[in-house]
Every structure is written in structure tokens, then in C-alpha cells.
Amino acid sequence: MDVLKMIADERRRFADLVDSLTADQLATPSLCGAWTVKEVAGHLVSVVAGSDVVALKLLVLSGFRLHKANARLATLTARQPAARLAALLREHADNPFRPPIVGHPGALTDLQVHGQDIRRPLGLPHELRPDRLRVSLDFLTGGRAIGFTPKSRPAGLRFETTDLAWARGEGPLVRGAAEAVMLALAGRPAALADLDGDGVAILRGRLRAAA
Hints:
Blueprint: H1 3-20, H2 23-26, H3 37-49, H4 52-61, H5 66-77, H6 82-91, H7 103-122, H8 130-140, E1 158-161, E2 167-168, E3 173-176, H9 178-185, H10 200-210
Parallel strand pairs: 1-3
Antiparallel strand pairs: 1-2
Helix pairs in contact: 1-6, 1-7, 3-5, 3-6, 3-7, 4-5, 7-8, 8-9
Keywords: Isomerase
Pfam families: MDMPI_N
InterPro entries: DinB/YfiT-like (IPR034660), Maleyloyr_isom (IPR017517), MDMPI_metal-binding (IPR024344)
């Protein structure tokens, strides 16, 4: 299993998606906070093609709050034309950058989750690969998904996927398609409607408390 190749392919697929969108679609609110579809694309570009100098300046201006700095960087990067964002994703598709702590599984998960942050509001099919979903599910339930999933979110729950032979944890059940389980673990309440089991209400309460 070569996670770097998975990441490169997801970047190229994301670039193809951005190229296919209209101006109205690019301006649509995504599932990721207050970001538009285009700003989500800007975030993914800034991860591999952003300026270190600009990133450091924004980090200082944000009081060294990483998430706030990342949000500013995404918004700044998204000011470029959509075609340029797509071109940069393709140009840097094979960038081997390894994020601190979360590593390459975190990078792959970032791409898959943000892809759904875009596709779900636009009503587009996800076409996610089962082997890549498995990597992200293992990552999100493995206790090292800093910035994605606090350890308290999956604690005491059992997660099962209906389209993959995958399950983790013990406790009240949360069950559904792998894509929906991944999004719920990553804090997207929109995916809860696609899940069932006694643990869904517990998970919903945790997501609400974290909002």
C-alpha cells in the first residue's frame, strides 16, 4: 500500500473536480466551517504550494493559532483563479510533504474529507476508493488524528461500515457507509443522517458540543 501514490492521485482528482465547476458552484458554502468550495480548494493548494514566508507571517498575525492562520492562508490562496488552483494541485501532486504528527495518512484524509466537503453540498458522487477510505478510517480512530478528531469523539463507541469489512471500538454502535463514517468522525454533522445505531445520538451530542 503506497499512501503517497494515493495522495498524488487524490490531488489530481481534486484538480479535475475544480476544473469542472462553475462560478456559482465554486461560491457554494462547503461543509467545512465558513469556507466556500473555492476556499477549500485554496486550503489544499496552500498545503503543498504555499509560501513559507506568507504562512509564517499569517501565523504571527493570528497569534500563533495554527487553525486561524490556516484559514487565512486558504482564503488568501483562493483569490487566485480556479484554473490556477487546479494547475497548482497537478503540479504539486507528487509532493512528498509529510505533515507533522498526522503524517501521510493525515494528508490523505484531508484530501478525502475536503473532497466530500465540496461534493456533498453540490450533490456530486464521491467515487472514493475503498482502500483509501480504510486508511482514513484507521487514522481517524487510531488516536493520532490531531486536528481531525479528538480522542473523546470515538471513545466508547463501536464503528462499523456497511460497504467495507471494517470495524473499530466497543460500545454503542455507529454504522453506515465508509464515507459517512469517515465524515462523522471528522466532525461533519451532515453525515449523521446517513448513519444508524444506538451510538449515533451520542456522537451527535459530541459534535454539537464541539461546534
